[in-house]
Amino acid sequence: MLPVPYFHITITVPAELREVLRANQRDGYAALMQASAAAIIELARDRRYVGGTVAVLAVLHTWTQQLNLHPHVHCLVSGGGISETGNTWHPARRKFLLPIKALAKLVRGKFRSLLQRKRPDLVIPDVVWRVPWILHVTAWGNGEQAVLDYLARYVFRIALTNARIVGLDDQTVTIQYKERKAGHARTCRLRGDEFMRRFLQHVLPRGFHKVRYFGLWHPAHRRSAARVRQMLQLRASPKLDLSQDPNVPPLVLPDAEPVPPIEPMICPHCHQGRLIFIRRLTPRQAMAP
User: Fold this and answer.
1) CA torsion through residues 143, 144, 145, 151, sign
2) Which of 117, 223, 273, 276 is positioned for an S-S bond with 267, CB 3.0–4.6 A?
3) How far is CA 225 from the centre of its chain?
């Protein structure tokens, strides 16, 4: 987890491609997650937007409140990226990360390329690839707490919980859902076979990972992420202890172990960097340097 702002990007598959993904879940959903993350990372490397490699956490969801098929990917993206050299952190703007239209076209193109590579036997009309994709980009929050809130809200969510089943008999199942436009709770009564059909279409193939990490959060970039975390912590404004002069380190006896201050001190020369106190060197002889 990085102490930076975060953005939430939702990428939704058009209705014309839903049945294709339903019939080819393992390859189709994997291509969707890879294309979404790759497009975000590629566009973020553009100096006009971020200028560095961002961290992406992608979570696959396939349902609506009424259990209809609705494949979409939720992405948590760091508000900044590391440069190609790995020495500079480029922060994103406060309320803007990437242009939506450009990102939507890039995701669609990468998804088409990946799907054709994985499944060259699929025949999809060209008109399908001209349908615009729906994307939403919103500022999510700051720091580690934003990541934890995201994980709690999206990672472990399932299509239907027991609390939403409000009615059950020998023939039908009644579920509760929220109507997004009106914001009111509604109920939907389904036949038993229709309820099972809707519910089981969201069961992913065995061994499929619906949570994946890309960019700076990829397991291969753990060292880079650790270096970025340390870099950002050093840039953070230190908290001063008003009861102690920040320019005077605590007194340490010659034979005593050094005791570092509780809060980091500001460098007395540049007044910006952090002063890390190790120990005080004192001359052992009067003529010593």
Assistant:
1) positive
2) 273
3) 14
Dihedral, CA of residue 143, residue 148, residue 153 and residue 159, to nearest 10: 130
pLDDT digits (tens, 9 = 90+) for 23-49: 999 999 999 999 999 999 999 999 999
What's the rounded Cα separation, in Å, for the pair 108 and 214? 18
Q: What is the DSSP string of 106-119?
A: HHHHHHHHHHHHH-
Residue 274: burial class (beta carbons within 10 Å; 0-12, 13-18, 19+): middle
Kindly report, residue by residue over 128-175, the tens digit of the pLDDT: 999 999 999 999 888 888 888 887 877 888 889 999 999 999 999 999
Cβ of 47: how many Cβ atoms within 10 Å?
8
Residue pair 18/81 in contact (Cβ under 8 Å)? The answer is: no
